[in-house]
Amino acid sequence: MLYLGTNYGHGAAAAVVDASGSLLGAVEEGKLLGDKDTARFPSLALRWLSQAFNGPFRVWAEGWHTRRRLLQKGALPCLLYGVREPVLWNDRLVRESRRWIDGLPDRSRTARLADRSIEVGHHLAHAHSLLPAGLPPLSLILVSDTTAERHAITVFYWTGSDMRRLWAVPWPHSPGLVFHQAALHLGFTGRTAPGKLMALSAYGCVSRFPSLAALGRVVDGAFTLRGSHYPAWRRRGTAFSHYAQHVAPSSVSTAIDRTRGTLEDGKDFAAAVQAWFTRVTIKLLHQSVRRARDLYGLRVCAVGLAGGTALNCQAVGRLTRVGARLGLEGPFISPWSDDCGTAVGAAVAARLTDGTATFDQWTTPLLGPRATTRAARPLHVAHLKAAIRTLSAGGLVALASGRLEFGPRSLGGRCILANPAHQTTRTRLNAAKGRPAFMPFAPVVLNGRESEWFDGPTSRIMAFTTPIRPQARQLLPAMWHPSGQARVQRLCDGDSPVLEALLQKWATTSGHGVLLLTSLNGGGEAVPARLAAARSMAQRLRLDGLLSDDGYENLKVTA
Q1: How is 267-309 classified by DSSP, letter by letter?
Q2: Residue 18: burial class (beta carbons within 10 Å; 0-12, 13-18, 19+)
Q3: DSSP string spanning 135-201?
Q4: How many helices (H) and strands (E) in the chain?
Q5: For position 238, what pLDDT does the model report?
Q6: pTM score of the predicted model
Q7: Which residues, at least 6 apart from 300, have a Cβ–Cβ distance to it below 8 Å?
Q8: Order of strands, edge to edge, in the sheet holding 163-170?
Q9: What digits encode the pLDDT tens for the residues 152-207?
Q10: Which of 123, 218, 253, 372 has CA 20 to 30 A from 390's CA?
């Protein structure tokens, strides 16, 4: 018996869970469609899941409450703020109405694939999505993002059989919304804008903008923006323009105005916003644990983090290093913390409607279509040696192996690999991918060897940053970042067999056993699912080679 989950919105996706609670498959619509930012109904994802796992589905669960989304995310903001910000009527109500109407035929067709259907709710689906990532019973979950149907923050408690909502904070009281608006203020756009602000923050000085602390406060696990200081509901420009003109001291106001749309002047602003966001997130989680224990009388043994906030690896890194002070396990992060993960959460919630299930085992993020339909077989050592020769010479090698990753990060299925020992590697990678020169790249290292280069815990899904040991700055310069930290992937047995075999050979050849890893795509492009598309992408990005389940291909253009 199978249980189907979908997310109809940004990060459109579908996922399947079986009767034992195992996550069998999940795929994002954009990766099949070739459109990274698609928000359409996940029809192609549903088609692949139906063919791959051959239904029927007992329950279909949608990750949104569709009517509540239309009313609370569409109409309510217009009623509250539409007089002062008329653009909200088109930005919210018209957009959500079109989405509701366009989705009616797809929802009707999908309902016929299952015996019954339910709607889970965005934040509840986010919370359930942590269960296949190993979240244990007696866990407190903080779901924090820009907005769900209505709420920006929701706190849940997982008993081991039931996900209980404890309290919630309504939109626009969202630290994530402030962070995203700060990225827009600096001139970054799209879904990758927050990540660019986070990377830029390492180059700046926090102390130039102390007044940002007055934007809002955290009390008893709830965040409240000071609306008179920071009207987060604004859509024309960003609320930082209002803050600079009407609230900040004249010196700060001038400094904020100077940062608008610039990188050089924006470094200190980015650093201050990142520091503010980290402090708020830590306070939220710690106060939530105390409130759950003292006011609700709950036993909290672990914590989880989901939603857009869980993608801020610097904040999560700080949480990881200070979380032990509360005697807690975690924070638990899934590989699919963004909106696509609500499809997984919806499928898990659908399974729980038929009774309890155990979700205490780690589930790989490699859940999508295979790169090739041919059966996997061990690569000949000659192919691995050919890839290593390219990497040793400073070349860039694409990897397309096994199943496609589910979630926003490439973790050994469809990625680009490079040698961190070459000074120019980061410059070439950023140029190939069309990213700003200040953007860092994540290292991947075999499990058990991470302590040679990194000082602290590491993640198998790049969930948080870890301090880099001093010797790495000279020996592996392309891995170094002004923050002194890296978002490490610790590759464990079975995570990605081809990448594991390559790293084992690479450790012997290079002497350091570390590679840089980034997603196989250009700016604004979707990661390719199939081998042919991966080959085309690698050629277009002018990479030097392609390593796949079929072997190694030299892609260098010769005169």
Answers
A1: HHHHHHHHHHHHHHHHHHHHHHHHHHHHTS-----EEEEESGG
A2: middle
A3: PPSSEEEEEESS-SSSEEEEEEEE-SS-EEEEEEEETT--HHHHHHHHHHHTT--STTHHHHHHHHH
A4: 19, 23
A5: 75
A6: 0.95
A7: 138, 139, 140, 157, 289, 292, 293, 328
A8: 163-170, 151-158, 139-144, 302-306, 329-332
A9: 999 999 999 999 999 999 999 999 999 999 999 998 988 889 999 999 999 998 88
A10: 372
* pLDDT tens digits for range 367-407: 999 999 876 677 889 999 999 999 999 999 999 999 999 99
34: left (phi over 0), alpha (psi -120 to 50) or beta: left
- Cα→Cα distances 78→59, 72, 100, Å: 34, 10, 17
Residues 6+ apart with CB under 8 A from 161: 137, 352, 356
240: three-class secondary structure by DSSP: helix
Distance CA 331, CA 440 (A): 24
Q: What is residue 214's DSSP assignment?
A: G
Question: Nearest-CA neighbor of 234 among 277, 181, 285, 189?
Answer: 181
Which H or E run contains 31? helix 29-33
Structure tokens at 202: 């390492």
User: Which residue type occupies 48?
Assistant: W
Written as six digits, the tokens of 204 are: 């700046």
In three-state secondary structure terms, 105 is helix
Give the integer Cα–Cα distance in Å for 306 and 339. 10
Q: How many alpha carbons lie under 13 Å from residue 176 in its C-beta half-sphere?
A: 23
Inter-CA distances, 159 with 240, 299, 325, 336, 432, Å: 41, 9, 23, 22, 47
